[in-house]
Design goal:
3-stranded antiparallel beta sheet; RNA binding; single chain; Jag_KH; GMP Synthetase, Chain A, domain 3; about 50% helix; Single-stranded nucleic acid binding R3H domain protein; R3H_dom; 3-stranded mixed beta sheet; 2 domains; Ribosomal Protein S8, Chain: A, domain 1; alpha+beta
């Protein structure tokens, strides 16, 4: 893993050099998530690197994962974080999940959560997995897919 971590670090450095953006980068491998974690300190460029609703950050992650696949010959999970954006987003999603689960238990009615990306739905599914009073389910197809949080009967 050490060699792959070094390779990914070099790719990240090269990508940001080509972009003309000065950043500090830390790359590590997370055994628990089976993923390479790329933490970027964007300094004055943090907002630019995150983008609107994290869109630029997601694009950077996709580009790095694709280049890393070409370089190593196999797909690896690459998670990119800029300025603790992922932690803040995860906290927001957990709060959203708790509120929806609470409403579902109180009202007895399913609570839909719309406009979530697949990764965001996954975070909520995993977060609420241990709550024995509710169940979660993704419903719909493609752009119309949403998360349903409903009380168990």
């Amino acid at each position: 893993m050490e060699e792959k971590t070094k390779t990914l670090k070099n790719l990240v450095d090269e990508l940001f050099s080509l972009m003309g953006v000065s950043v500090n980068v830390d790359v590590s491998y997370d055994e628990g998530n089976e993923a390479f974690i790329v933490n970027i300190d964007g300094k004055d460029e943090t907002g630019l690197l995150i983008g609107r609703k994290g869109e630029t950050l997601s694009s950077i992650q996709t580009v790095l994962a694709t280049i890393f696949k070409v370089k190593t010959g196999e797909w690896s999970r690459v998670l990119v974080n800029v300025g603790d954006y992922r932690e803040k987003e995860e906290d927001h999603l957990k709060n959203l999940a708790e509120n929806a689960a609470s409403r579902a238990k109180e009202t007895g009615e399913a609570q839909p959560l719309y406009n979530l990306k697949p990764g965001q739905r996954r975070i909520i599914h995993l977060y609420l997995a241990n709550d024995t009073g509710i169940e979660t389910k993704s419903v719909g197809e493609d752009a119309e897919r949403y998360l349903l949080i409903k009380p168990k009967k």
